[in-house]
Design goal:
Elements: E1 16-20, H1 29-35, E2 40-45, E3 55-60, E4 64-70, E5 77-86, E6 89-97, H2 106-118, E7 124-129, H3 140-150, E8 155-156, E9 170-174, E10 179-186, E11 193-201, E12 204-210
Parallel strand pairs: 1-12, 6-7
Antiparallel strand pairs: 1-3, 2-3, 4-5, 5-6, 7-9, 8-9, 10-11, 11-12
Helix pairs in contact: 2-3
InterPro entries: Endo/exonu/phosph_ase_sf
Protein name: Endonuclease/exonuclease/phosphatase domain-containing protein
Length: about 210
């Protein structure tokens, strides 16, 4: 996460932000206190080991948010969440980070994971930094993953580079017709871009961000 030079969110502040590679651990409390804007809360899963890692959801304190940590994928960090945007509207989803490494069986494992949640909700979103170049149509890992998720009704929404190298490493897949990809913006404190998207249902408009750390 960013240091005291700024918060992890940039104006205009969103309703929620989904972060990967936070690098947080038990000693990160002072930095987290600086990075989280007033009126916001954080739910986090700290890095387990190795390079990179750590995921978190930063959200307005007025939102009702429930999270659940999951150890199903040993090669990745998972956090399931439910965000109640109003008394009758809920956005369900999963935030995933996978460090660079072997990709064997990853596509099937993620599809199996997503299948249990897409059946339970029409408004499901899968937010991921898997260190896979999804823009590469010649990569068997990329195409297999996209095909497996498409069979579950999960569409890839991000159609722009999300990394300084020009690759699409950060992904948003969703079954919902109420979620729209808006744009990406460059952040000064990370080589990943911030992905802006909206969840709009009923008559309420909720702005969210996923700025990877």
């Amino acid at each position: 996460m960013p240091s005291s030079s700024g918060t992890c969110l940039t104006p205009p502040l969103p309703d929620a932000a989904f972060l990967t590679e936070t690098l947080c651990n038990d000693s990160s409390a002072p930095d987290i206190a600086i990075a989280i804007p007033d009126g916001y809360k954080i739910s986090r899963r700290d890095r387990i080991n190795g390079i990179g890692g750590g995921i978190a959801i930063v959200h307005k304190a007025t939102l009702e948010v429930h999270t659940h940590l999951d150890d199903t994928l040993k090669s990745a960090e998972l956090m399931h969440f439910q965000i109640h945007t109003d008394p009758i509207t809920t956005l369900r989803g999963t935030l995933i980070y996978r460090p660079p490494g072997p990709r064997a069986l990853l596509s099937n494992a993620i599809a199996d994971l997503a299948s249990t949640h897409t059946l339970a909700s029409m408004d499901y979103i899968l937010l991921r930094d898997l260190n896979i170049h999804l823009e590469n149509n010649n990569n068997v890992n990329s195409t297999t993953l996209i095909d497996n998720l498409a069979n579950l009704g999960l569409r890839q929404l991000v159609n722009a580079p999300t990394h300084a190298t020009g690759h699409t490493l950060d992904h948003i897949f969703s079954t919902s017709n109420h979620i729209a990809f808006n744009r990406t913006t460059i952040l000064y404190w990370t080589d990943h871009h911030c992905i802006h998207f909206t969840f709009m249902k009923q008559t309420k408009h909720h702005h969210t961000e996923r700025p990877p750390c």
